[in-house]
Specification:
about 250 residues, mainly beta, globular, single chain
């Protein structure tokens, strides 16, 4: 552990301790990121959490993907409910104990029951959307139209993956995240997860016409090209149960 209490970013996940809460398969995932001043997003963090930084900046991510076969604990995927499309807008966080994680500004999904359940159980900002994913040859396209009450926004992302690459420091910074932070019922919780290192590919953005960033209060980002682009065929991940983010980490 470093003197600051923050462990160096590593693509190797710590093992989960205790029972599993759920397992998920994330497939055909695109990473789009914009560098921002940490002060611009610090107010979006839960209590006890601050923006994590790399070379003095933090990042806002726009991440579309397919959820396939999500299951309870270590069990098999739940029919219908366990597979859906999702696009999330997220920030990168570190808490006062040094745990690195993700803070979600939005998670848009095309399963209304998933949206209602995740909002009720964990306070995560899920929103219902009409979504479509298509693959034509080597081109992947993701379309989102929000159906969430009081919010109108659309997004279209089209990318062409290239060759697999050796993960860069920035690739690891945005992908080697072993939990999420969320403020719920008066506490900041940390939900741990475990997955193998992401297989990362080069990718070319063919179309980026996005309103989801603006819908969460970041209207200027999509007007400029992203600072980081990558594609991954995906990973299998397992989640532990939430714990108090202020609780010291085990050695």
């Amino acid at each position: 552990m470093s003197l600051s209490g923050v462990e160096p970013v590593s693509s190797r996940a710590p093992e989960l301790t205790g029972p599993l809460m759920m397992n998920q398969n994330w497939r055909d995932l695109t990473f789009l990121h914009w560098a921002v001043d940490p002060d611009e997003v610090a107010h979006r963090m839960p209590p006890g959490v601050r923006p994590d930084t790399l070379d003095g900046v933090t990042y806002v991510g726009l991440i579309p993907f397919r959820m396939v076969g999500a299951g309870i604990a270590g069990g098999p995927g739940i029919p219908w409910l366990g597979s859906f499309l999702e696009t999330n807008v997220r920030l990168y966080s570190v808490d006062d104990t040094g745990r690195r994680g993700i803070v979600f500004l939005s998670l848009d999904a095309d399963r209304a029951a998933v949206v209602v359940g995740a909002r009720a159980a964990f306070g995560l900002p899920y929103r219902w959307a009409r979504m479509r994913y298509r693959k034509s040859g080597d081109v992947h396209s993701y379309d989102t139209q929000l159906r969430h009450p009081g919010t109108r926004a659309e997004s279209r992302i089209v990318i062409r993956p290239g060759a697999r690459r050796r993960s860069t420091e920035l690739d690891d910074f945005v992908s080697a995240r072993w939990g999420l932070h969320v403020h719920w019922w008066g506490r900041t919780l940390y939900v741990p997860n475990h997955h193998e290192a992401w297989p990362v590919h080069d990718a070319e953005v063919l179309v980026l016409d996005d309103g989801l960033l603006a819908s969460v209060g970041l209207p200027d980002l999509a007007a400029r090209p992203p600072d980081h682009v990558a594609f991954s065929p995906g990973v299998h991940t397992e989640f532990g149960f939430p714990g108090d983010a202020a609780r010291p980490r085990r050695s």
